[in-house]
Amino acid sequence: MIEYINQLNDVLWTYAIIAGLVGCGLWFTWRTHFVQFSMVGEMLRLLTDSSARPQGGEKHISSFQAFVVSLASRVGTGNLAGVATAIAVGGPGSVFWMWVMALVGSATAFVESTLGQLFKRHHSESFIGGPAYYIERGLHCRWMAVLFAVLITMTFGLANNSVQSNTICGAMEGAFGWSPAVSGVVLMVMTLVIVFGGIQRIARVSSFLVPIMAVGYFLLAVVIVIMNIHLIPHVFKVIIDSAFGLNQAVGGMVGATIMNGVKRGLFSNEAGEGSAPNAAATAAVSHPVKQGLIQALGVFTDTLVVCSCTAFIILISGVYQDSALNGIMLTQSALESQVGAWGPVFIAIAIFLFAYSSMIANYYYGEANVRFMSKNPKALLWFRIFSGGVMVLFGSLVSLDTVWSIIDLCMALLTACNLVAIILLGKYAFRLLDDYRSQKRRGIRDPEFHRSQFPEIEGDLECWE
User: For 121, left (φ over 0), alpha (ψ -120 to 50), or beta?
Assistant: First the structure.
């Protein structure tokens, strides 16, 4: 069964997803006048901006909280195990293509998250939204919206959580010798406690865990790079040579290198996949572009910072040449070679924080779309049981190849659906960005948007009174 899934993955990724991601990223970069580069200063300012105002009677989810919920999903297994898998399968050059996808994909992330804000709806706990909502309201295509909701629920609420669980349990086994089954049961209980608390609890936990784990891991990587500063030119040379097949040893692997770089880059930063807009829509801001800019910054943070940390640690160590190592075991072995026996323990703790925060954020993406498909409380109850319980335990018991094959297929189908939607709806994001820039040029520090500015779709915009 897994063999057939892998064959389907090769076809989808080779002929559709890679071309779609790159093409959309370049188009959005051009149409937004390189927003991911020209407005970095504004992104950083908005991240700490306290001027966001709640609308209606919802509990307030701040712009920063929405950012860390999406970052919690991005910064996870993909940053430690995913980068290692990309290097093990596709060679060091995969890192280069991950960087390319981040630079280009951040424009895509801006567009989809801006649309998530524009078409968001009122909800008892916070705002709620995402691709299913902007497909239904923007394209008036209910069947496509339901299709996306089903795909993202399967991808994040179910398949993705099995990947995170598999990686956590593998790290615990490697560091402490714990049985994956025992770790899986403990992890399942911990996850269920959080997911039954809703977006407010998820936002609070993510706001606490994400900054700690990201900063701690980044600082450790900086120390290792400084200790091996003389090897950095060699590391960059290895990455570039491998990326373009300049090294004879990997000259025939360019296709695999690009494919693995793009796949693991998408798994890590999620740009274009349609996941981050679900978190972006929860924030109370005065203009949709604000959250679009912040989510674009999240792509940079994830891939150019955290993923690069893992790549440098692995490539400096040289252990990536051992074909017996893959996934989180490769990262643990690389760190052990640099800092000693406590390296695998540190990675085990780091991957627990990274992957656990991803699991609870992934759950919310599924919840938002289950709510879109059904108002029946039992549907949400069963989803919580399967997402936080069954799939977490499943991931702890199956092989690494099995969970990665399943998530690759789910990601491909989900991304294809979302790319079609944002291509058709991108015009609204472009107009919103023009309006935001116009207000900034007029000296307005805190631009605002009102739905009357889009009279042709005013009836489809529930918020923005």
Answer: beta
Q: Give 10-residue mean pLDDT values along the chain (465 residues).
A: 71 73 92 93 80 48 68 64 79 87 91 95 81 94 94 84 83 83 87 68 62 74 86 90 67 66 71 85 90 88 81 87 73 79 74 75 80 86 85 84 81 91 96 96 92 92 87
**Residue pointed to by tokens 């960005």:** 433
* Distance between CA atoms of residues 366 and 123, nearest Å: 16
> Interhelix angle for 288-299 vs 400-441, to 10°?
140
122 neighbors 463 (Cβ within 8 angstroms): yes
Q: Which of 146, 90, 83 is nearest to 309 (CA)?
A: 83
Instruction: Note the pLDDT of residue 57.
Output: 44
Task: Tell me which amino acid residue 253 is.
Answer: M
* Nearest alpha-carbon partner for 43 in 421, 433, 418, 362: 433
**Amino acid letter, 68:** V
> 1: exposed, middle or buried (C-beta count within 10 Å: 0-12, 13-18, 19+)?
exposed
Q: Residue 58: its pLDDT value, please?
A: 46
287: tokens are 């203009």
3-class secondary structure for the chain? CHHHHHHHHHHHHHHHHHHHHHHHHHHHHHHCCCHHHHCHHHHHHHHCCCCCCCCCCCCCCCHHHHHHHHHHHHCCHHHHHHHHHHHHHHCCHHHHHHHHHHHHHHHHHHHHHHHHHHCCECCCCCCECCHHHHHHHHHCCHHHHHHHHHHHHHHHHHHHHHHHHHHHHHHHHHHHCCCHHHHHHHHHHHHHHHHCCHHHHHHHHHHHHHHHHHHHHHHHHHHHHHHCHHHHHHHHHHHHHHHCCCCHHHHHHHHHHHHHHHHHHHHHHCCCCCCHHHHHCCCCCCCHHHHHHHHHHHHHHHHHHHHHHHHHHHHHHCHHHCCCCCHHHHHHHHHHHHHCCHHHHHHHHHHHHHHHHHHHHHHHHHHHHHHHHCCCHHHHHHHHHHHHHHHHHHHHHCCHHHHHHHHHHHHHHHHHHHHHHHHHHHHHHHHHHHHHHHHHHCCCCCCCCCHHHCHHHHHHCCCCC
